[in-house]
Amino acid sequence: MKKWLVAVAAAALVGTGVMVADVMRGDTTVDRIIDGDTIDVTMKGETKRVRLLNIDTPELGRDGVSDECFAREAKARLEELLPVGTKVSLEYDVERQDRYGRELAGVFKEATFINEVIVQEGYARAVVFEPNRKFYDRILAAEAGPKHKKSGIFGAGGGLFRAGPAGQREAGSSAAGFRKLG
């Protein structure tokens, strides 16, 4: 009876245009931190790569390319927040995967919204991965503190970010605008 009522309520909400959150809870465990905004998790016995939605951290260097400023610090902080073996919940938006096949999600450790913490502490900036805007306003608000204090990636001096057309805020490769070290 309970399941039937939940199904009816969910259908009613969808029918009225209210979006029902797509959340993966319980059996999701952190396996590895890739960089400041990407982790590997195990869910339902399968390893998935997860890109933290609506944030962007500097990229680690590879193939002879230097690290971007604060890339190692961002990764180290995410390792502190999400040690291997940590249970997390993932909350999805409109599109669940990016063009690289990574899950796009808000990552929660109990009640702590990890995407937001990384930004509040100055290790990341807010970005939009259209059409996924679910957490963008919250992340953008979290960015105000370190931006105002000029801390973390916002205190690295002029030129850390390259200006995009008309204030565009998108993520991707190093073209997202972090300055390289070295």
TrEMBL record:
Keywords: Signal
Residues annotated as domain TNase-like: 24-156
GO molecular function, one term: nucleic acid binding
Secretion signal, residue range per the UniProt entry: 1-20
UniProt-listed InterPro entries: SNase_OB-fold_sf, Staphylococal_nuclease_OB-fold, Thermonucl_AS
Keyword Nucleus applies: no
Alphabetized Pfam families for the sequence: SNase
Ribosomal protein keyword on record: no
UniProt organism field: Corynebacterium meitnerae
Name of the molecule in the record: Thermonuclease family protein
